[in-house]
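Hey,
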Amino acid sequence: MKKKLMAGLLIFTMMATAALPAMAAPKAKKIAIKGKKTVAVGSTIELDSVITPKKAKVRDRNIIWESSKPSVARVLDKRDDDTKIEGRKAGTATITVRIRGTSIKAKCKITVKKNNNKAEINKAKKTIDTYKKDAKKLRAEIKKLKLSKTYRTRRAQYRKYENKIEKIDDKLDRLEDKWEDKYEAGKISYSQYESLENRIEGVEEYLEELEDYLEEKFDYEFD
């Protein structure tokens, strides 16, 4: 008897629970824009949408981004909860984000500044060229080098120039990391980063050839 009563109560509870209306997610009441408001020409910044209340469910495809002046500040992702803004030329533009099918929207002013990295990039290029000159000097020294007659001193000669090549390579790596970080942070454009990267790769290739030349000079004795 007790078992039948318990089973009946369980069925009744399940039916009553199923009959209750599901709690609908709250509707969005407000949207705001979060992120930096300045960007350099040729660089990008990221803007995020913040919807109130937090539990409101809005599909990413219904969040629309627009720019009042795409020639100044261009919206890269037009439908998403966040977007990237690319600086095209110096000036200001108004970025608007809205929720499709509603009157909910927010605006912010973006200032695009001239790219002031030119002088610093030119300085970096000169530094890279200096590393190339240093590598060429090393090659000239290796060419004139008279190999010692004993194994121990020959090995010391070899290690000396091997270390000098590695020092130049390490400097290049640090310089490359510095500008890669700047590019990833949106502080320089891809074309600026690429011009430095190509220059660095040119020196790295020369250093590889120089290592081969050093090994040939010592007849691969310490390879």
